[in-house]
Amino acid sequence: MNKTALISGGTSGIGRATAKQLLQDGFNVVVFSRDRSKVKKLQLELAEHFLYDRFLVLTGDIVREPSIKIVIAKTLKTFGKINVLFNNAGYGYFTEADKVDIKKFQAMLATNLIGQAILTKHVVPLMKKQKSGSIINLVSISGKRALNNGEFYSATKFGLMGYSEGIRDELKSFGIKVSTVCPGMVKTNFFEEEELNTRIKQLKMGKRPKLLDAEDVARVVGLIANQSAKSDIQDIVIMPAA
Predict the structure, then answer these.
(1) Cα 60 from chain centroid?
(2) Measured between alpha carbons, how far is 124 from 234 in angstroms, rounded to an integer?
(3) Dihedral over Cα of 110, 116, 117, 121: its sign
(4) N or C: which end of the chain has fewer CB within 10 A?
């Protein structure tokens, strides 16, 4: 296959599962995160199952453009191209409208939306030159509907959905496909225990809900990354079966 995938925030959760999925599918994979301890841990983990010359695990910060440039330069030096970009980095901050810490909201906006735009900005010229490529943006079901206490997180994800729709239309003439993946709640470290209990009460579930596994989402990303030239998967919603 000899295709290369770049994954942001890929050292844990959905990113980690997707890195393994795409390596199994035959891709070369580059993952980056700003957490150095997780970078080292994933390097050792992948080395147990895959050849060293098929993956890179790098330290990089999605909100710092100089850091992104270094990640892309190292990717190109090692693999020469980027065929798939998986914009996975993101986190949640949940609070009430009149109790929001604006600095925390701005930081989440920087990671969940602006950081994705920075990374995409530097990958798109490479894909235009290749006249092909796949950009996969991890949104959320919160990018389609908002719940109380989740309005600030949803604002970042609604923004990412709009950004994705816009660049899809903009880049299609260059042979670049743009897809969004919108999962429901996933069993990762994303939700703090307090927030998960709040969600249970809000949705009147009465008990802990079934959650998706990170591997469920990774398989969907793999499906998109492996789609044929004749298909254009634009938006997928994946919810826990309950």
Answers:
(1) 14
(2) 17
(3) positive
(4) C
